[in-house]
């Protein structure tokens, strides 16, 4: 792949979990990266960690994308931006049920501002963070990009569906081309263990809960439901290494920038194609860490899907991208990250 070193990519949410790994991947591919993040759910010290990995600091704008003036000022300052990758959004499913307007306002206003300001400044490419949540409980597995979009089970999920619709409508008329990446379950961390998932409070997601339990921050893992129609009764997901997810953004960007056959709006599944149950995840963690994880089978969690995993043939073929990393690598890197996080002190925010 040939990339022009002068090409600048705006990464919104660049200090967050997937954003930070993507900044590193972009840098490695020779892109210049500008980061925008309001630090509402991430930490300033991630900038130092990213710089430590990449060997240089990256321009950073501590702005809220709901503030259109501030976003415009960024584009005025950074004239070389050729594309944006839009991660910045709220993402806690349960919280979105409690605070629907907060989620709709934050996730949709920021997206609309970005689209509008990008168009104004002639930045015609966008990669959007979407989610397999748009498929709901799929009728057939694995899910392809043509599987039906099901009614969202949370305001968060709805912001992803609506986000895709807004982009689809806007790309029809604006000259902007966009790719939405529907992530399955990103887990793991950079091999340096300098960046990774950093939950602000008690984790909602499985892997951070596992690693926090193993290190003693949580007493035991509660496995939500053991009476599902799956081989061991626990839910099945398509877990994918965050470094593979980051690489998918480079592939999407490459398609937008270097291919002429790109539709105005395209969507791709970003998973491995393999489903693992919660109990299989626990076993995989125990194997790589050598620890026994205290866990208890409990009631189902409301809103959980029984099983979902991706058909990745479309992304493999068209994006020339394929997840490379094994479940062991996902668990190993997540565990290293957790251990390093707890062995260091750092200045917060
Ligand atoms: N789980 C447990 N115990 C926990 C946490 C999770 O048993 O403490 C189980 C869940 O019930 C589920 C699996 O582990 O079966 C994975 O749960 P996560 O919360 O890690 O991930 P989800 O699949 O529920 O959610 C993810 C993203 C959401 C997104 C959703 C789309 O976190 O942002 O996928 O399906 F909306």
Characterize the structure shown.
With 349 residues, the protein is of the alpha/beta class. The chain is built from 11 helices and 13 strands. The chain has a 7-stranded parallel sheet with strand order 3-2-1-4-5-6-11, with helices on both faces. A two-stranded parallel ribbon has the order 7-10. Helix 2 (45-54) links the parallel strand 2 (32-36) and strand 3 (60-61). Helix 1 (17-28) runs parallel beside helix 2, helix 1 packs across helix 8 and helix 7 crosses helix 11. It starts with 7 loop residues before the first strand and ends in a 6-residue tail after the last helix. The model is unreliable at 1-5 (pLDDT under 50). It binds uridine-5'-diphosphate-4-deoxy-4-fluoro-alpha-D-galactose. Residues 91, 93, 131-133, 157, 185, 204-206, 209, 221-224, 235, 237, 278, 301, 304-305 line the site of uridine-5'-diphosphate-4-deoxy-4-fluoro-alpha-D-galactose (UFG). Uridine-5'-diphosphate-4-deoxy-4-fluoro-alpha-D-galactose (UFG) is lined by residues 91, 93, 131-133, 157, 185, 204-206, 209, 221-224, 235, 237, 278, 301, 304-305.
